[in-house]
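Researcher: I'd like a structural prediction for the single chain below. Treat it as a standalone chain; there are no partners to consider.
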Amino acid sequence: MLSMFHTLDLLMYLIGILVLLLIWQFYKMQIAAGRILEVDIFDRSGVRMYLFATPNDEQTCKACSTVNGRVFSPSLIAKSDFTPLEAPCMKPTPCTGVLVGLYGAWLEARSALDRLRSSRKQGHIQLSGQEFRELIDGPWERTVGARSSLSAYYPIARTSGKVGRGAQPHRTI
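Model: Treating it as a single chain, here is the predicted structure.
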């Protein structure tokens, strides 16, 4: 009688595990079909992309200015040998550049995120000057967490040379 209860309990556990495996396979099929987005449960930061920005002036070398406006995936940033530059900086004192983590909930950022997801193997995309301007000028102030984060103001200040109300990103991008 006692062994019968153990067998039934064991059978119920095995059925439960089988059902969870089927749900997991269904989830993977939905991701592969593009119906739902894959979520990394270990990434608690909420950052979905990193934007590299440099000042657009004569003091920035060619190697650093070519990667201005490049968007990187968080998985690429997490690698120990990551560098945003393709070639080393050519100046004796390194150029000023900033790598800003963004959530990207506004329309222009979502299009950059979609392009970044489609180039998963490469791990980065290069925005044109106009796309970079649209990303910075987008309505990111209305997104969740914009008031508590100053990270989006920094690329605007770096590309325009001005900080505060007089910042004009169109002037030097």
